[in-house]
Design goal:
mainly beta, 1 helix, Porin, elongated
Length: 188
C-alpha cells in the first residue's frame, strides 16, 4: 500500500513539473488545525494547533485539475494521572496527498472542491512516570476539502480553504484531522 501511495505521489509531481510551462498553479496556506485525539479520562487535553499546507496543481480539460499536497496537521496533547502516576501524550501529524480538484467559477472568483488519498504519519510520545516512549504510525486515508479564492492579480489568488482527513496516532487509535487555512495561489 505504501508503494502505491508513493507511486501516485511521484506521478502527480511529475505531471505538475511537466505542466509548469502551461497555466497551472502552486499554493500554500496556514491556519488553525485540529487532531481529534481521545480526551476521555484526561485531566487536560489540547487538540488544536497551527498547521499548513503546500500544494501544486496540473490543469486538466474543463474545470478539473490533478493535485499533489503536503499537509502539516499540527500537534495535539493530553495529560492524565492513571492510578496517581503522571502521564502525557503528545502527537504531531503530517501527510502527503494526491487527488483531484473541481473548480466552480463565479463573477467574483472561484470555489474549489477537492478529494483524494493521503498518506498520513503521526509521531507520538507517551511519557509515563517520567519515562518516555515514542512511536510512529502511518495510515492511508481519504482526504477532502473545499474553499474559495479571490483574484488579487491575474496570476495571484487569495484563498480560504478547509481540508479534512484521518491519522492513526497509536497502535489502536485514529483521529480526525482538520486544517482551516488562508493562503495564496499562484497560476503560471
Amino acid at each position: 500500500m505504501n508503494k502505491t501511495v508513493a507511486s501516485c505521489a511521484l506521478a502527480a509531481a511529475t505531471c505538475i513539473a511537466a505542466g509548469a510551462a502551461h497555466a497551472h498553479y502552486v499554493g500554500a496556506g496556514v491556519g488553525p488545525s485540529r487532531i481529534d485525539i481521545n480526551c476521555a479520562g484526561t485531566t487536560s487535553c489540547d487538540t488544536t494547533d497551527t498547521g499548513f499546507k503546500v500544494y501544486g496543481g496540473f490543469s486538466l480539460p474543463g474545470p478539473f485539475a490533478l493535485e499533489a499536497v503536503y499537509f502539516d496537521w499540527g500537534k495535539a496533547g493530553s495529560t492524565s494521572s492513571p492510578g496517581g502516576v503522571p502521564a502525557t501524550l503528545g502527537t504531531e501529524a503530517s501527510g502527503l496527498g494526491v487527488g483531484g480538484a473541481y473548480f466552480l467559477l463565479f463573477g467574483w472568483g472561484q470555489c474549489t472542491l477537492r478529494a483524494g488519498v493521503a498518506y498520513n504519519k503521526a509521531d507520538t510520545t507517551v511519557t509515563l512516570a517520567g519515562v518516555p516512549s515514542s512511536s510512529s504510525h502511518n495510515h492511508t486515508a481519504p482526504y477532502y476539502g473545499f474553499g474559495c479564492a479571490y483574484p488579487l492579480a491575474p496570476s495571484l489568488w487569495l484563498t480560504g480553504e478547509a481540508d479534512f482527513s484521518r491519522a492513526q496516532y497509536t497502535a489502536t487509535d485514529k483521529a480526525n484531522t482538520r486544517l482551516i487555512s488562508i493562503g495564496l495561489r499562484f497560476h503560471f
